[in-house]
UniProtKB/TrEMBL annotation:
The chain crosses the membrane at residues 6-28, 63-84, 96-115. It comes from Streptosporangium minutum. Its main location: membrane. InterPro entries: NADH_UbQ/plastoQ_OxRdtase_su3, NDAH_ubi_oxred_su3_sf. GO terms for cellular component: NADH dehydrogenase complex; plasma membrane. This is NADH-quinone oxidoreductase subunit.
Length: 123
């Protein structure tokens, strides 16, 4: 039983060493960095733009639509890479080719739908 738990001891020791290295690096950074806070440095900003106006602003829905479209295409890329590796395997060539064209057809329908709804027009 001691051999079983000794492997956990190694994992625990590596975890403690990792935490010590990170904590040490952050502590040394805090000690060596210059610290001169000014009102301008403590001011909240977004992407380098000074805050102007009220604290509540309305966002346009098209930004969320572009985000969802990006997620869809990122998921497509996740499916395309394994397909490329299986495609070369013997016995899977034509089957995987047909399945991928069906998959790309669904994606093309989604793009066509977004284009017809004028979601992809940036104005």
């Amino acid at each position: 039983m001691s051999g079983y738990f000794s492997s956990y001891g190694v994992v625990l020791a590596l975890f403690v060493i990792g935490v010590a290295i990170v904590a040490g690096a952050l502590s040394v950074n805090r000690l060596l960095r210059p610290h001169r806070p000014t009102p301008e440095k403590l001011l909240t900003y977004e992407c380098g733009v000074d805050p102007v106006g009220a604290d509540w602003a309305q966002s346009q829905i098209r930004y969320y639509v572009f985000t969802y479209l990006y997620v869809v295409f990122a998921v497509d890329a996740v499916f395309l890479f394994p397909w490329a590796t299986v495609f070369a395997a013997p016995g899977f060539g034509m089957t995987t080719l047909v399945e991928m064209f069906v998959f790309l057809g669904f994606i093309a329908l989604g793009i066509l739908y977004a284009w017809r709804k004028r979601v992809l027009a940036w104005t």
